[in-house]
Amino acid sequence: MRFGQNYHQFFIPEWSEHYVDYNLLKKHVKLGNVAEIYMYLNATISSLDTFYKYEINAEGSAESKLTKIRWFGRVNFDAIKRIIEKLKRNGHTGSPFPGNFVVLHSKWEGQLATQHSGNGFQDGLLTNQPRAANLLHIAIRRQDDESVHALAPNSKNLHYLSVRGETALHVATQFGRLDYTTVLLDNLVRMGLEHDIPDISRGWTPLFFAAVDGHFDIVRLLLQAGSNQHRKDHLGWTAKEYAVFKGHLAVAHLFKPTDVNELTGGPEQSPFGASVQAPSHCREGEKIIMATLGSSRKNRVVTEVDLSYCSSVYTPGMYDGIASYALEISAVGSRSQPREVRLPILDDQINDPFIFPVSSDVTAQLVFKVSRYTPEGYVLVGSGTALLESNSHQFGVGRQSLIREQTAPILDKEKMTVAGTVTFTFLIVKPYSHNLQGPQGFATPEEWAKALNQTSTPPLLVGHRGAGQNLLTNHHLQIGENTVGSFLSAAKLGASFVEFDVQVTRDLHAVCFHDFSLSESGTDVPVHDLTLDQFLHASKVQSPHGNPLSVLGKPRYRDENGRRPRSRSLGEQFEAGAIQIRDRLKHTVDFKLKGFKPNIRGEFIQDSFATLKEILTQLPEEIGLDIEIKYPRLHEAVDAGVAPVAIELNTFVDVALETIRQQSKPGSQRKIMLSSFTPEICMLLSLKQKAYPVFFITNAGKIPMTDMEVRAASVQVAVRFARRWNLTGIVFACEALLLSPRLVGYVKKKGALVCATYGELNNHPDEVRKQVAAGVDIIVADRVRLVADTLAVLN
């Protein structure tokens, strides 16, 4: 926590009790004296409010009021909010209402603008008084276009520094106003004034603020104006690294490449806040209800709490007085205490869900209560209840909607009419019936590192979907992806692990298949709507009977009776079947979008579809398995034009775990890692078992972003998510880490996570070498032999 300047050094004695002793507060934060912090800040809120009401509103001259308001402006509201948010992130409750500080700050700015006489403060008088806010700053924050254009030509306004060392240009970039930024830059250039000025608290220039918030056009404008893109802030980060960290890869591409060897400090030396851990596991006889306010999708803009008298979104000017509202969330039958959220909500809660363990025989219900603060305490003004499992019968037994967002009405206590709504996203976790709580092989980052050192020199090479993803653009031999033949080929070419996708059929069998729909059937039917027999039939129609391809040489495995399998042979009936399949494909949405299907005879060396059981029993034990649990995602259903309904999440995961458990021989040394793009799947895997490491796969802001999941949108949220749910590591789209290689150190040293990458660039030796130099632990690649040879030279 950085407090910048000593904010209390100018306080006059009779007003000192109305200000924040930042040195004292900083000491309490350092020592972890949570109770003292709460007591101090709660008292400060009351003191500041009293001071404003009775000092600022008292009778007196305008100049006298202006002086008092200027002193009032010494309070660092942003610092107080950061303290509160830090405490909340660390799981402490009882923090004061941060919205009060925002409202007080807004009132003070408005009063300053009203009382300002045009003398003194702006014209250089009262030079011995502490700084408050400049009118140009206020105009930008209020987005008053007329005032901004009127005040911008004044050089004193342009270079006025706030108590944090911010200029008007800093403020304009924070608000994302390209027009303001353009006007300010034009005037700065006209007057020959510097624009690339770092602030005091963080060492951020306007370029940093624009990059952090992803303001593409503003970043481009500032770079064209000559902003130093290689400048480091007080923590050693560059603006480009912040852009990548926040998931703004398009913005990061505006910057020139940086020689990371010339940089010091930075991401891996940066402080990392304590992580609020999830429950260790879901116990037998209970279920866990988890809910997060709002939506988890980037393309969904919702107001979490939207009531007629208050909202979760703070909007200046919408609050009369500083009435405090709070939302309390609880679960019927839970042993956990209710969670309280003050309104408006000023911090990000996407990785801080409300967690309520309940008995397995209790109906899952969330209760929302809205209260208003009065001098006598909080008084209930409205409430509502959400029945989380009420609509399960609409989808059929064992089915659920892919939309996990729900809206509950809030009824006014007095009128019993709908006063508004609460929108939230929820997940219900049920225990896995068999014991997989003991590690098998390795489960922690430390065990991963030890295992890697014993078997190979990092990074570990994983064959993507076996010997590579099937693409028409590839100009090399391609065996059908996600097949036993492809896995054996990958191992022969140098992969230590093979990655493959596991889905679950309607009759609850785990099968190996990547795409959302089995368009080989001639329709866009999802895999989870097919039986196992229907799934395999699409493969049998075009496949010769037998086992993996003869191009691999003699099979390395035997059947259940110990006999070697028969060799493959081709026949006219299968060629006719392949033609039939291709004719059917032309009418499917999937084929129209991509123009091909993987593992189809004629385009690739087709092989039989495989079940998870066959993979576990037929692959040699020395081949490690990266099993991606590929749960259907909402955008896939939308693209296919089918109903967003799938197999219930717990059932889906349990089928995969049970198949692995049943086929794992006692004393087996096979290394298995579990992974998923779906955050809820990772959460379930973490809570249901501890036998195998769990990896979260994330786009990390890769463009175009088809999956609009918030928790997959950046390095920052992915790391927080993985730490929050005790995951072993993260598999990033490699573009992010190639743009900012030093973030690998942040993931590994600060996040304490194993760092893996995937993506087309992982097939290029030069890009692989960059990742090895950055310290990437695992590389998932299609061109297995090429990457294996590259790694062999480096090692």
UniProtKB/TrEMBL annotation:
ANK repeat ranges, renumbered to this chain: 164-200, 202-234
GP-PDE domain residues: 459-791
SMART domains recorded: ANK
UniProt KW keywords: ANK repeat, Hydrolase, Repeat
Domain of life of the organism encoding this protein: Eukaryota
Keyword Hydrolase included in the entry's annotation: yes
Single GO molecular function: glycerophosphocholine phosphodiesterase activity
PROSITE patterns tied to this protein: ANK_REP_REGION, ANK_REPEAT, GP_PDE
UniProt region (Disordered), positions on chain: 543-569
GO biological process, alphabetically ordered: glycerophospholipid catabolic process
The protein's name in its UniProt record: Glycerophosphoryl diester phosphodiesterase family-domain-containing protein
Lineage: Eukaryota, Fungi, Dikarya, Ascomycota, Pezizomycotina
